[in-house]
């Protein structure tokens, strides 16, 4: 008895797939639109230039003291994710330490260890998503702008003490 799949042959090469898609589009009367003439107007070009400048500035300034507070803040958010998961699973937080070498530790007792350990990354993603969603609303960002600027200040002052 021959196996059913042994009698089938598949050609998954790029040209075969493209030919198949093109044939199906042609048979259905649809034609692909490959003209990119209206792709990049002035808004898109400005966005691409600013984004490229951002990427270059990020890589140039990342290991400087200018971005050190932001890197330490991201470590704090990571550790706060561990602490939040511990608290939500019934544990207690003993300490959160953020070190100058951009390391950190969260001391806790109790809680569900399986949820606390990966929660640092999940917490960072959650707070990054929350800030992104909050920044989408002009009224919310203009209302809370002062709070966003002053929130890291106590954190930075505590590092200097």
Question: What key attributes describe this structure?
Answer:
two-stranded antiparallel sheet; mainly alpha; elongated; disordered C terminus; 7 helices; 161 residues; 2 strands
Task: Give an overview of the whole structure.
The chain has a domain at 68-160. The chain contains seven helices and two strands, in the order αααββαααα. The chain is mainly alpha-helical. Mean pLDDT is 77; it is low at 155-161. It has a two-stranded antiparallel sheet with strand order 1-2. Helix content is 61%, strand content 8%. Helix 3 (68-88) crosses helix 5 (119-135).
Number of helices: 7
Radius of gyration, taken over Cα atoms and rounded to an integer in Å: 26 Å
Order of helices and strands: HHHEEHHHH
Helix % is 55-70%
Mean pLDDT: 77
Question: What is the spatial order of strands in the main beta sheet?
Answer: 1-2
Strand fraction equals 5-15%
Q: Could you list the spans in which at least 5 consecutive residues all have pLDDT below 50? A: 155-161
Q: What is the overall shape? A: elongated
The major β-sheet equals:
2 strands, antiparallel
- Terminal-residue CA separation: 80 Å
Which structural category do the helix and sheet elements fall into?
Answer: mainly alpha
Query: How many E strands?
Result: 2
